[in-house]
Design brief:
- The protein has 356 residues and is α/β, with parallel strands linked by helices.
- It folds into two domains: 264 residues, Alpha-Beta Barrel (TIM Barrel), CATH 3.20.20.80; 54 residues, no CATH class.
- An eight-stranded parallel barrel has the order 1-3-6-7-8-9-10-18. A five-stranded antiparallel beta sheet has the order 12-11-17-14-13, with no helix packed on it.
- The radius of gyration is 22 Å and the shape is globular.
- The two termini are 43 Å apart.
Length: 356
């Protein structure tokens, strides 16, 4: 009986230290709590307003998209290539080296498309090696300071889960082989909360694009409290440290005969000679309208979606209620002065605040 009791005690102890940060609920942080922001443009050149935003709101962690991994049928044996790599202009490079950005922590992010992940099934080690090698070179070449973590962003599904988890494991192995003391984090979509956590050090819960943007009947596919409700119950028991990212962007979506045609921007839906408003955020074209290398035809519908503060705040309150006892940081997606100007300073501070 003593032997059995001792074995049971050992098993409990092992279970206690399992998981990120030392427990299965992931409540221990794998990095310091701080305000964060994503930067998701192909040229990293924050303007004066964006630099002021970083300083004014104590943003100390910047998640910088470095490149995408996509499929190219003409490229090599695996047909996967880096695409849309970020470029850092000279003035920004100077800031990185010695001025306002030199003290910030940077997290380089790689977006892996589902097509690329499927193409690399069975040879995830090759993809991991290519990602880490390219990222290491880009971080060094661009002089990114204070890098202690890299992030993979992928909308993995049930069928691609084994391949993505294998990729995460191989990336961690490759980081060790390259002598890079970086943590590995992963984005976590709401629907992925129902699955087991990937083998990474921490995650960022993406609380945006919560609905189906191609649904013509959706009210707001960017963020809507009713879209998150089925998933929030999984947050307290999720076996990974989670930070949380909230949206601060807007977009316009074009539909023709209820079929989604694509994302738009800068469509002047307020022009009553061109559009008729048929609902609070829906506009029907009255005539042909050239826009963004496309022609909007009579009868086409444009749905305008915003990340309005009241909606974000409502969702955030719900998320925070599930994270009340878990250390976490809040992150905004993404750094863009035009969109961020729609929020007051107090509203931004409230979005960054945690309930703990």
């Amino acid at each position: 009986m003593k032997l059995i009791a001792g074995a049971a005690a050992l098993l409990i102890a092992l279970m206690t230290v399992a998981g990120c940060g030392g427990n299965p609920a992931g409540s221990q942080p794998c990095h310091e709590e701080t305000n964060g922001v994503y930067y998701w443009k192909t040229v990293f050149a924050p303007d004066s307003a964006e630099l002021a935003f970083i300083d004014g709101h104590n943003v100390d962690r910047i998640y910088l998209r470095m490149f995408d991994v996509t499929v190219n049928p003409d490229a090599g044996p695996y047909k996967t290539v880096p695409n849309a790599s970020v470029r850092i202009d000279y003035d920004t490079y100077e800031n990185l080296m010695q001025d306002s950005l030199s003290g910030k922590e940077f997290v380089p992010v790689v977006y892996v498309t589902l097509d690329a992940l499927k193409r690399m099934e069975g040879v995830e080690n090759e993809l991991a090696g290519n990602i880490v090698s390219r990222l290491k070179n880009m971080v060094s070449y661009n002089g990114l300071p204070n890098v202690a973590e890299m992030q993979l962003d992928c909308d993995w599904t049930i069928s691609t889960e084994p391949s993505y988890f294998k990729l995460c494991e191989e990336v961690k192995n490759r980081l060790k082989q390259e002598g890079l003391p970086w943590r590995l984090s992963s984005t976590i979509r709401l629907h992925q909360l129902r699955r087991k956590a990937p083998p990474v050090d921490c995650g960022v819960l993406m609380v945006y694009n919560t609905g189906n943007f191609d649904d013509p009947d959706a009210d707001n596919s960017i963020i809507d409290i009713k879209d998150i409700e089925p998933y929030v119950k999984h947050i307290p028991s999720y076996a990974l440290h989670l930070d949380v990212a909230y949206p601060t962007y807007s977009w316009q979506l074009l539909f023709r005969k209820r079929q989604f045609l694509g994302l738009m921007n800068n469509v002047d839906v307020a022009d009553t000679t061109a559009f008729t408003r048929v609902a609070p955020n829906r506009y029907v074209a009255r005539r042909n309208i050239p826009c963004n290398n496309r022609v909007i035809r009579p009868g086409d519908m444009v749905r305008e979606e915003q990340s309005a503060y009241p909606g974000i705040s409502e969702v955030k309150e719900r998320i925070e209620s599930k994270l009340a006892n878990r250390p976490h940081s809040n992150i905004l997606y993404h750094l863009d002065s035009k969109n961020l100007s729609k929020y007051s300073s107090d509203e931004i501070d409230n979005l960054y605040s945690t309930a703990r």
